[in-house]
Amino acid sequence: MTAPILTIDKLDLAIGGVPILRSIDMVVEAGKVHALVGESGSGKSMTALTAMRLLPHGADAAGTLRFGDEDLLTATEERMCALRGDDIGMVFQEPMTALNPVKTIGEQVAEGIRWHTGANRPDAEARAAHMLERVGLPRARFPLDRYPHELSGGQRQRVVIAIACALRPKLLIADEPTTALDVVLQAQILDLLRELVAEDGMGLVLISHDLGVVAGMADDITILRRGEVQEAGHAVGVLRQQKHPYTQQLAEASAHVPQWAGRTKPADHWGLLEVQSLVRDYPGPRTGLFSRGEPFRAVDNVSFSVPPGRSVGLVGQSGCGKSTLARIVLALDKPTAGIVSFDGMETSRLNDHDAQMALARREMQVVFQDPYGSFNPRQTVERLVAEPLHLEEKPLSRTERRERIAFALEEVGMPADAMRRYPHEFSGGQRQRLAIARAIITRPKLVVCDEPVSALDVSIRAQILDLFAKLNDELGLAYLFITHDLTVARAITHEVMVMDHGRIVERGPTGELLDNPQTEAAQRLVAAAPDLNRAIEARIGNTMLHLPLEGRSATAEPRKAKPGAG
Amino acid sequence: MLAYTARRLLIVLVTLLVASAIVFFVLEIVPGDPARLMLGLNATEDAVRALREQMGLNEPVLTRYLSWLSGMARGDFGESLTYSVPVTELIADRIVVSLPLALLALGLSTAIAIPVGIFTAARRGTRADTAAMAGTQLGIAIPNFWFALLLVYVFAVTLQWVPAGGFPGWDEGLWPGLRALILPAIALALPQAAILARVARSALLETLAEDYIRTARAKGLPANIVLWRHALRNAMIPVLTILGLQFAFLLAGTIIIENVFFLPGLGQLVFQAINQRDLIVVEGVVVLLVGTVVIVNFLVDLAYAWADPRLRRR
Amino acid sequence: MTDHLVAAEHEDWRLFLKKARANRSFQAGAAITLLIVFIAAVSLIWTPYDVAKLSIPDRLQGPSWSHWFGTDHFGRDIFSMIMEGSRNSIAVALIAVGIGIGIGVPLGCWAAARRGWIDEVFMRTSDIIFAFPALLSAVMITAIFGPGAVNAIIAIGIFNIPVFARVARGAALSLWPREFILAARASGKGPARITAEHILPNIANLLLVQGTIQFSLGILAEAGLSYVGLGAQPPATSWGRMLAEAQTMMAIAPQMAIAPGIAIIVTVLGLNLLGDGLRDVLDPKLRRER
What we know:
Chain B has helices spanning 2-28, 34-39, 45-55, 61-73, 87-122, 127-141, 144-158, 174-208, 211-218, 223-261, 266-275, 279-307. With 314 residues, chain B is an all-alpha fold. The radius of gyration of chain C is 22 Å and the shape is elongated. The B-C interface holds B 11, 14-15, 18-19, 22, 26-27, 30, 137-138, 140-143, 145-146, 149-150, 152-153, 157, 245, 248-249, 251-253, 255-256, 259-260, 270-271, 274-275, 282, 286, 289-290, 293-294, 297 and C 124, 127-128, 130-137, 139-140, 143-144, 216, 220, 223-224, 227-228, 243, 246-247, 250-251, 254, 257, 260-261, 264-266, 268-269, 272-273, 276. Chain C: Belongs to the binding-protein-dependent transport system permease family.
């Protein structure tokens, strides 16, 4: 047992009089990873900001927060400045905005070094270069005079980590450091953090909502809910035994598989949606006065089909072209080449005012990711859910409309009186139900779902997945289900397609493909995907039976993505 | 960066071309024959016709526009109809009053506004902030020509520190010239400073709420250092935009202020020229001012690229 | 800017009142604006004195119970003139704002909906209009077509068009990629219908705030034009003309310049406070508790 670095004792926090944290206890030890887990609103980020003393105005904290022998809550601001960045580092969730856009990465890493050590510019820059090298950004490829906008999200997060760890802090606080990244980048960043903890012997507070991530990383765990500690202890023990009901609930929700009658239903052989040799190019960046760079090919010769009543998943890293493909399927964007036909109508050739297009749109609806952004905040639920009804051939009477809306709401488990209310009166999960109600009100045959559960907390996510399964059973809806989360793909799709650099590289029945991926891209995704049970097994050491996926042969003949396969 | 500059430069040229065409053709539709206006009501038809010929008014419109344009490209703005001297000369005489006035006002406005903006942003919510912001509200509401009247009454009529109006000319030396411009410059600058200070404050506050400010704070930099090193440059962009717009406003604002102080500047020239239907002078001055505005905006664009590396790639 | 709109939420009237009650700037601004409008309305049927009647014996009096703000060099009651003048200021600025909104907002929304070369042409055109210093051009327009209130309105209105067009375009552009617009497009709604149903209601707040700003700028511009003799013509009364007349009397009757100046300042201040207050009251960023 090593000495504790950070000891939080009976921490209470209120912001503007509203209690946020209640009597939090937590001990972080040197060289250990302490996970702080909870759903949104649990107060996990606020705990971290309290430790940094970077709370918003009007915050009032009580209790003790001992760092070494000092109480951080009573330390002067001057003293906190000396500690921050030197002894305590912090990494934030959103790498795209965490770096100053007008300063080079070298300046930003060297700045903290110069500030705390008083080193001159060349020395500080040499140290900064060394640190960037450690986080995987070697100077040869990433010179110090690069600006943040020249780096990708994963690379930017590495810079943020370099800033936080430049002076070998005793404590590093990482607030959802990988939530904004895709699974492959997530695995890389987590590896990096693990290495830094091992090499520098610092304590790491890892804030996360993802039990899979936590199970693979953490030594200790504290589970928060609504500002209170639910359970704490050794991570593997807590997650394996799941003694506390809330822990159990979280664990179940994160690996939730809905009751789904249609799971085993055999597929029809004709394609409801047929996509053939689809290509979408975007013009390249402007390079000269009149010249442009090479066009960027977002979707590259993609062909597939979705049979009626089937749920087909589309998985891949961010930027692989999934969302572009979804937009073209929905006829919100025109392909550069290729054909999309839906129910026999060639939608890629139709225009918005064609009568056939209205027909196609009625039978093909969409659910988006962001439960906050998918509604016009100024319309009532009645108007929002009824939006696609204007596609109906003959106008509906007021009562008919009302009935249709009430029925759709009932189907998604919302009361009919929700109609009169406005979207901001509903929670994220309820809004997603409303989005689904809107999508099914015209009785479509296909619903395109673009990451519909990835912005939701795990317990809400489980409920929404149940709803998708139920609607497939009851209405025979086909889904094109876009997700970066393989657990979700496993839960709700019959087949899955893996997309990489604009191409579909592999396709097959979901379970089979994810258990035994053939192509390198699919293997990369599967290996990186956090999985609670697999991580626990790995941690308790009886993984001998369960071969590490990286070990599998990547040279096997990749399965071809066959249109209409399955 | 080169492509960015070249693209901006191209936009400048096109803007100038279109603007000059607008000026020319708008003034073309003005009712009244300039030749007749010049000669007065009693002139004979023959005299008018002869003058029209001499002025080239019988040429097709497009030909006249092109020759006017090519003249301007060579720095020849034509000849004034009322004074019979080259427009270039008239403008040169007046611009030595208007341009220093606008620049003085711009400098004054920036020198007051930026520190106030930084100070209030750093101390938001304090009494000093509230008081300063109330002051800027008042400053924005004050019409500059009324403020000018007030200044004249207090400093020229009552205290007699400075002349109430007129301009001695730069030949008299730097100081007498500046003395004549001080009050007009203050009158022009203060309302603008109020606007600029508010923009600077809100731009800074917006920047201070960014994620990277938190990153910088997590590095251990104290709040005031973060403001100077990280927030200021990012907040420059809206400030630069307003500065560019203000220069145009100040140049035009001199027209009214010159009226208050009886300054022989471009504003006075334009007024006289409009009253005398001396269109060629009006065209010249307007094109010159528009050109100045366009070039200042071009410089602001370049300054953007300096302030924000993300733009350099475009 | 995006976030403003993004989160723009339903006009909950009660919430609006609650926030308005807590916002002093809004209250002060609304009170001043209502007062000015009230004075203008009253002046239609009644003023303490007839401003058209000259009364040389009463000229150049200081403030008193019978003449609150004193009299001018023709013996006219300055308070009555201020009342009359408020009508002119409000009418000119209001109609100019109307022109700006009426033409600018549809243009901006159209450019944002169509994108591509239409948008490009639109942007370049507004760049060119912005290159003309507004006041100079207003002077030019009124000088060419003759001075007068109508031409002043047109001159100020023309320069309001690109302002509103740009605000509308910018706000609309940030809304178009949003998911609720995509969902509407996926429901087969065309650009015009989406603009009417989804874009306009969400940019209305922003336009309202910009409207109060342009209103106050219009009052300043009208005063400036009238001051140099290009705005309202005699016998109409306007604050700018009162100042021009006061200037000639500056040495002997400085008080003549005070009342119209204060009237302009109070009106503009009131509108600016109202605009600021509205922005805060309507700003969903502050409203949402998350």
